Amino acid sequence: MFGFSRPQLIAFAVMVALIVFCPFVLYPVFLMRVLCAALFACSFNLMIGYVGLLSFGQAAFFGMGSYISAWTMKNWGIDASIAIILGGLTGGVLGLVLGFLAIRRSGIYFAMITLALAQMIYFFCLQAPFTGGEDGIQQVPRGTLFGLIDLSNDMTMYWVVAGVFLAGFLMIHRIIHSPFGQVLKGIRENEPRATSLGYRTDDYKLIAFVLSCTLAGVAGGTKALVFGIATLTDVHYSTSGEVVLTTLLGGLGTVFGPAVGAVVVTAMENYLAQFGAWVTVTQGAIFVICVLAFRRGIIGELGAKLKLAL
After folding, report:
1. What is the residue-wise DSSP string for 17-48?
2. Which residues have CB under 8 Å from 21's CB, separation 6+?
3. For the chain, which end, N or C, has fewer CB atoms within 10 Å of the first or last residue's CB respectively?
4. What is the mean pLDDT of residues 58-85?
5. Cα 200 vs. chain centroid, distance in angstroms?
6. Are 137 and 131 in contact (CB under 8 A)?
């Protein structure tokens, strides 16, 4: 099912078991932050790990999804599911527009164009009236799910976030292991050969870009409902850099790597906060050690040692 091999199915079962068990021993809000970061990283990995497109502007789609979900939830009082879907649609539409402009270039040129376009989105959010400027959109209610389930309770909200993450994860896994995903891998390995076989590579890359941006918007919208706020941090270039590091740390081009990377990065940010100004130095040192010790990422190295595709 969903293209899982036996080792991947076992790994998926372990991941689901951890998702079910962890809220009873750890703080649910921390776990929801991990799941939102994991979905964001998995969506980014779909683009860079399987198409070879390095974007430095993913924060634009994550942040705009967060803003739209927060604004509609606060001002229209819509259902939480609709707010999250609107966040995903915002990311997808924005990805279609910006991707159409950027996809014609590759390599460092594509990366720089996405960074420039993302900075335009950042300054738009800084000036637009509905975003609240530097204050952001605050006191966003969680509302209800399907008009029946009250999401004000952290445990209830956690199961919704877990469901959103698992749905996004399974969608990405299905895309990767579909004929469409095989074409994406062919483009990553040798784009001229894929073109010679008759594939319109720019169209395939644009579709993958839009899918990645849509899931990034879903992650941003979910995060806004969890924490009740959408701020400029969500669209800042540092968020784009963080998702790159998260994916590299977990394992580029692996299915479970981005999720593991999100756990490591979020845990460091949470538990190293006591170091104050030294937290970034400590994080940097840990990243250097991980990059030197795990050249293919944590899951990439583990899969190589076990000779398994994880």
Report:
1. HHHHHGGGTS-HHHHHHHHHHHHHHHHHHHHH
2. none
3. N
4. 89
5. 26
6. yes
- Buried (b) or exposed (e) across 150-183, using 16+ Cβ within 10 A? ebeeeeebbbbbbebbbebbebbbebbbeeebeb
- DSSP three-state, residue 301: helix
Which of 90, 2, 38, 8 minimizes the C-alpha distance to 258?
38
Residue type, 283: Q
Contact between residue 87 and residue 218 where contact means Cβ atoms under 8 Å apart: yes
Q: Give the pLDDT band of residue 53 (cuts 50, 70, 90).
A: confident
Rounded CA-CA distance 242/289 in Å is: 17
Report residue 304 as tokens. 């190589």
Distance of alpha carbon 40 from the chain centroid? 1
Closest CA to 7 of 295, 256, 179: 256
Going by their DSSP bridges, the two strands 149-150 and 144-145 should be labelled as antiparallel
Chain centroid offset of residue 88 CA: 11
Cα gap 224→138, rounded to integer Å: 9
Half-sphere exposure in the Cβ direction for 212 (13 Å, CA): 31
**Closest Cα partner for 53 from 209, 174, 190?**
209
Instruction: Give the Cα separation of 232 and 281 in Å (integer).
Output: 23
Could you read off the pLDDT of 133-168 as tens digits, one per residue? 788 888 888 888 887 888 888 888 899 999 999 999
Q: Confirm if 197 and 276 have CB atoms less than 8 A apart.
A: no
- CA–chain centroid gap for 4, Å, is 21
Give the range among 87-101, 236-250, 265-279 with minimum mean pLDDT: 265-279
Alpha helices in 128-236 (DSSP H): 154-176, 179-189, 191-196, 201-227
- Which residue, 170, 180, 209, 166, is CA-closest to 3? 170
